[in-house]
Each structure stands twice: as C-alpha cells, then as structure tokens.
C-alpha cells in the first residue's frame, strides 16, 4: 500500500439526458438488428456505446500525498548482564552510529531510551518500550541494543510494535556479541532452610550448559576461607548431584560451591552458588513449674505453646504436702507431682527451667534443689519469677538454689507496692535481650505500669530493667557454664492485658528465654557482619571494656585486611563497628568473607542482587527472534562490526537486507486538492471503436 485509495468521477462532454437518450437509441437499434439477423450490427452498436462512454468522460482522481515525519525508538539495555565482556563498548559504538545516521535522514527523529534492569527484577525491556511508545507521534520502528536476555518477552506483538492505526512496525535487534554464546550455570535444586545441629544437610545441585549440548564433564568444588578449593564431586552437566554438608553449630553456615568453567562460556558469574544453612536445635524442652495459680502462668503457657519448636512440660502446685484435706485420696483427681522424675532422672534433658511464683514448702527435698543448682552450673538455663513468696518462710533463696540466684530479697520490707513503669538501665540499652524492645506502641512513649515488685539488698550480675527509683527488676547472670535470670515482679502479665497500653511483654519474655537457652542472636559477645552495596560493615557487641578494637577481614582470595572498630553511637557504649568498601575481585575468586575479632569469628557472603539476571548470561537471539520476525525486523550481531544502515522504505516492501535496516515511510493525504486522469485513455478507446467498426463492416460484407 503506497497511499490513500483513488476514486472514479464522471465529467461528461454532453448533457446527461442526451447521453442517456443516445445510449437508449443504440440499444434499440442493436436489438432491432439482432431480430432481423443483420450481420455486423452488434459490433457497430458496441462501437457506438464505446463512443458514448468516451463522451461520458470517466476520470480517476488521486489525492495529494505527503510523507509523515517519522519517530524511531532507540532502546539501550544497561542491565547488569551488559557489563560482561565488551558488550557495553559494542552497544555504545552502535548507539553513536545510529544517532548520527538519524540526524542525516529527512523527517526522522530518533528517541533514546535506557533500560537499567536488575534489582532482583531481571531485565524488562518491553515494559519500558510500551511506556515510551505512547509519546511517539508516528512510530516507524524500534532499534533494540541488548544481549538478548529479557525477562518480560510477550507471547504476541506488544503495543509498542504497533502504531495508532494498528500497523505493525519493525523491531530490529542489535546484539552485543559476534554470534550465539554459551554459558554454564550452577543451581541448587533443593536445600533445607533449617538443619538440626549435629545432623547433615542433604543438598541437590545441577550444572546446566546453555547454548550447547549437555553431558559434558564438570567438577564441583568448594571454595574455602583461605582462598583454596577442593573437589567434592565429578559429574556431567545436566545430571543432578547430591551432597551432604554437616552442620556443627547454631546460626548460619555458609558454603560456596563452584562448577569448573566451560570453554568459551560468556561469564563465570553464575558458575558458583552460596548455600545458606541455618543451624537450629532440636525441639527445645522447657519445664515450667508454677506455684499457686496466677495470671503469669497463663502468659507463660501462651508464649511457649505458640512456638512450635518448644516442648513444654507445665506443672502447677495446687496443694503442698502439709495441706490438710479430709478428702479421701481415692477421690482426688490431681496428678501427683513427679518430683523424682523431673528433678533427678530427666532434669538434664531440659533446655530451660522456669520457676514462677514457686515456694518450696517442703515440696522438693534438698537433694533435688541441689540438682537444680548443679544443672545451672553445667550449662542449663534457669528463670525465677518472684513475687511475695520470696519473702516468706521456705523461699528458694534459702535453699541450695539460692547459690546460683543473682539477687537476694530481705524478709522485711522486701515488697514494693506502688505503681511504676519499668525502665531500661544504661546496660539494658545495649544488652541484646532488651536493646531492641520497642519503645513506642499502644502505651505511647512509656510502658504501662506494674504495681508490685521486690526490693533487693544485694545483686550480682547485670541489671537490665529497673524501677524509676533504681530498684532492679530484671537481673541476668552466668553461673559456671549455665545462665540464670530473675524477674523481680510477678506482674508482667499486666502488659498482656493492655494495662494503660501494656508493654512488649511477649518480645521481652521470648528474648529472655532464648538468651537463657543460648540462642546465638542473643549472645552478649557477638561479632556480626553484613554487606550492602559493596560495603562490608562489622559490628562487635561486648559487655567487657575493650581498647584498640580491630577486626581481621579475610577475603575470598585469602588476603587479610585490618579493620579498626570504633564507637559510632555514644548511647550504646557496648557496640563497636567499622566498615570498608570491598575491592572488586575476579568472578572465579569467590564470594565469602571471613571476619575474626579476638576469639570470635563470622562469615558473610556477597548478596545475590540479581538472581534472575544471573540465570542465563549468554548473548543470544533465541528469546526475541520470533517477535523480530513477526514485526518484519532483522537480527544484527554487533561483534562482527555489523552496525546496520538505516533506510527509509516505502510501505509494503521488505524492511531489512544485508547490512541495512528499514523504516516504513508512512504517507498521509493532504486536503489541498486532488489530481485526476482519464480512466480510459483516448487513444485506446479510438483504437477499440475503429476495430469494432471494421469488424462490423467485415461481417456485413460476408
């Protein structure tokens, strides 16, 4: 199609009524001659009708056409995969040449569009093209400069490849390579997110060879913190491989696996992967022993039962051995308190013992109480929640358990009965148990009140919470290999009821319990590290005064760097931190960094910022070739020096060829007038009339 359609008009040389009359007479004469069987009459009638048609003067009109100004879109892919090899250089050279050509062509404007991609979303070229095409008046084509890796390729022609009238415009694909490339990737098929400490994680991985045949030999290696590697398995690409990784400690375990390179592959960036395994304990066993029934018991049950990793054993002491009761023993439905089983046979199987409002009252013999103290010293966790019973006869602090308790309450004036709001001490602002407790919430800027607490006459250990007057409320201590905590109020349950807004009751008890059970994230001495935008930040938490704190940073290549740690937050005097910008290392070097500080160590891996982008790093036309063909465009490989020449081509013709890419010329009709030409040339009608008259005479002569 080259322009708007033409039309037929009539410009008769004689009046219309006269032409109609003459045509009728010709038909009557022809009919009469046919009835008389006159020879040649039909030929003569035809000649007369052609003459009348000539006099009717049919003419064909043609509108005046004008080529519209054209808009072309130059889309430049600047996603992370374009940083491989010399792709950016090839694209920049082609970009410069195409823009120069566009400036030399008449009525052509080239609009540039850069598409960054990455950030975990992959490359999304067509979303950007669809938005940009809305601002083009007369889109004539799109030049796409990319490596061919796009993650939003539509199944049919998108709106960006059609103009407002529905005409398809060409998509010319310019690829930053010499031809189809290959790539090898290592991917994890399955890996458990959590592994019980002391057990083995079963991992399944697979190496894929993209752009070439599978089944090629490949080695699976592990990259160590000293920069050395060791071979874990020999396999073939396309075949799953099962590996066993032991998990020996709580917290995060990092393993970097590497696939040996494929000859000539595009990049080594996806030849490695980081395995992240979270070491956790087996189900935690907690023994909760409540004294007289109280509101706090319900709080503890709700908290511990909500954690699926906790096995809770809860007993409430409803009657003491010396309670007088006339009910026959055979009628009692109470379960006998299994003192021997819990405090002699199975005490070491518990990770935490909670004594809530517990008054001994001769329930436990001294040997069992000594077992509790011994349990703490050998590594167990003990939490004592105290109330008025701590000032009565038979209190725990007067038993062997008292030797491991961090606070002592006097018998006289040991109970404080007045409203107060718990506050964090200076140490509590830095300690992991209370540091992250929310300060603002339904309670406003101040936690809700309690109305009863215990007054101490001596404490040891660390006080994290206190009354406004300074009386300790939460005291932590370490005894031997174990840990013990005392909550010197039995009214934390008021927070769960929302008393004047309440407070962070669940978070405090959760953190306190996990600290007693030695969860790594709540350790008082911690060394943490994370990497963000190429910067390594190291944080050291300690409750022991330090001087000239310095961390040893070991890179994946085994290189050591000294990193000084300083105070950055004066309000947290127990926090030391420092950061450094990590150097750029070759892709095959590794991604795990190891940090040492005193006796502590930790590892951190470079984050997977573009997992979708790194799935396939080839430069290939495979994904886009179908759309390019349907749009009438062509594929050009920039690595061969093949930057196409832009040509403006009439509509309806092929839009590409060897070394050139075409843009269709769209034309529009002007309203300034039309031109007309004779529908039937006069010379042709004259020849036909004479020929038909001659045939008529010839027939009559016979």
From TrEMBL:
Membrane-spanning residues: 14-34, 678-698
Keywords from the UniProt entry: Membrane, Transmembrane, Transmembrane helix
Top-rank taxon, per record: Bacteria
Gene3D superfamilies attached to this UniProt entry: 3.40.50.880
Domain called Putative glutamine amidotransferase: residue spans: 355-496
Keyword Transmembrane: yes
Xref: SUPFAM superfamilies: Class I glutamine amidotransferase-like, vWA-like
Protein name per its UniProtKB record: Putative glutamine amidotransferase domain-containing protein
Keyword Protein biosynthesis: no
Organism of this sequence: Bombella favorum
One Pfam match: GATase1_like
């Amino acid at each position: 199609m080259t322009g708007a359609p033409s039309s037929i008009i009539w410009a008769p040389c004689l009046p219309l009524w006269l032409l109609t009359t003459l045509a009728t007479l010709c038909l009557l004469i022809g009919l009469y001659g046919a009835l008389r069987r006159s020879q040649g009459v039909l030929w003569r009638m035809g000649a007369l009708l052609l003459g009348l048609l000539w006099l009717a003067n049919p003419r064909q009109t043609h509108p005046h056409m004008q080529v519209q100004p054209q808009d072309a879109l130059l889309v430049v892919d600047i996603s992370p995969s374009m940083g491989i090899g010399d792709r950016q250089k090839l694209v920049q050279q082609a970009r410069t040449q195409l823009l120069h050509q566009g400036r030399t062509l008449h009525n052509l404007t080239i609009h540039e569009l850069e598409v960054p991609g990455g950030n975990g979303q992959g490359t999304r070229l067509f979303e950007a093209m669809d938005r940009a095409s809305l601002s083009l008046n007369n889109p004539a084509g799109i030049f796409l400069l990319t490596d061919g890796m796009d993650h939003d390729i539509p199944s049919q022609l998108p709106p960006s490849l059609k103009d407002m009238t529905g005409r398809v415009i060409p998509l010319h694909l310019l690829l930053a390579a010499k031809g189809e490339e290959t790539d090898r990737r290592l991917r994890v098929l399955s890996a458990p997110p959590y592994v019980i400490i002391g057990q083995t994680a079963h991992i399944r991985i697979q190496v894929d060879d993209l752009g070439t045949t599978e089944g090629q030999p490949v080695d699976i290696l592990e990259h160590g913190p000293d920069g050395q590697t060791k071979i874990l398995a020999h396999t073939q690409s396309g075949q799953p491989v099962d590996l066993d990784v032991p998990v020996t400690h709580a917290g995060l375990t990092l393993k970097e696996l590497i696939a040996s390179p494929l000859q000539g592959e595009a990049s080594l960036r996806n030849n490695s992967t980081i395995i992240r395994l979270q070491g956790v304990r087996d189900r935690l066993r907690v023994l909760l022993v409540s004294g007289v029934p109280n509101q706090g018991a319900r709080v503890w049950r709700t908290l511990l039962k909500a954690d699926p990793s906790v096995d809770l054993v809860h007993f409430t002491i409803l009657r003491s051995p010396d309670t007088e009761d006339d009910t026959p023993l055979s009628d009692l439905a109470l379960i006998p308190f299994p003192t021997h089983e819990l405090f002699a046979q199975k005490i070491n199987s518990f990770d935490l013992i909670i004594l809530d409002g517990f008054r001994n009252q001769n329930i436990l013999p001294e040997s069992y109480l000594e077992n509790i103290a011994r349990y703490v010293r050998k590594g167990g966790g003990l939490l004592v929640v105290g109330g008025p019973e701590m000032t009565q006869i038979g209190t725990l602090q007067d038993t062997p358990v008292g030797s491991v308790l961090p606070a002592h309450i006097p018998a006289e004036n040991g109970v404080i009965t007045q409203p107060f709001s718990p506050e964090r001490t200076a140490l509590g602002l830095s300690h992991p148990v209370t540091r992250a407790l929310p300060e603002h919430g339904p309670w406003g800027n101040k936690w809700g009140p309690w109305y009863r607490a215990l007054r101490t006459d001596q404490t040891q250990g660390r006080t994290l919470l206190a009354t406004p007057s300074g009386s300790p409320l939460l005291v932590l201590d370490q005894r031997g290999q174990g840990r013990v905590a005392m909550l010197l109020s039995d009214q934390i349950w008021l927070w769960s009821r929302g008393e004047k807004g309440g407070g962070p009751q669940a978070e405090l008890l959760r953190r306190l319990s996990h600290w007693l059970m030695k969860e790594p994230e709540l350790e008082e001495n911690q060394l943490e590290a994370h990497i963000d935008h190429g910067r390594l930040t190291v944080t050291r938490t300690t409750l022991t005064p330090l001087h000239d704190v310095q961390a040893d940073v070991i890179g994946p290549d085994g290189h050591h760097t000294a990193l000084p740690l300083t105070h950055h937050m004066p309000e947290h005097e127990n926090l030391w931190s420092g950061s450094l910008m990590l150097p750029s290392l070759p892709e095959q070097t590794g991604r795990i960094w190891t940090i040492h500080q005193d006796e502590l160590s930790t590892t951190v891996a470079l984050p997977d910022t573009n997992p979708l982008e790194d799935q396939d790093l080839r430069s290939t036309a495979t994904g886009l070739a179908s759309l390019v063909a349907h749009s009438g465009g062509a594929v050009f490989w920039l690595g061969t020096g093949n930057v196409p020449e832009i040509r403006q081509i009439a509509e309806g013709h092929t839009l590409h060829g060897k070394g050139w890419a075409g843009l269709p010329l769209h034309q529009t009709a002007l309203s300034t007038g039309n031109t007309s030409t004779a529908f039937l040339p006069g010379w042709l009608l004259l020849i036909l009339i004479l020929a038909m008259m001659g045939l008529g005479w010839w027939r009559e002569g016979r």
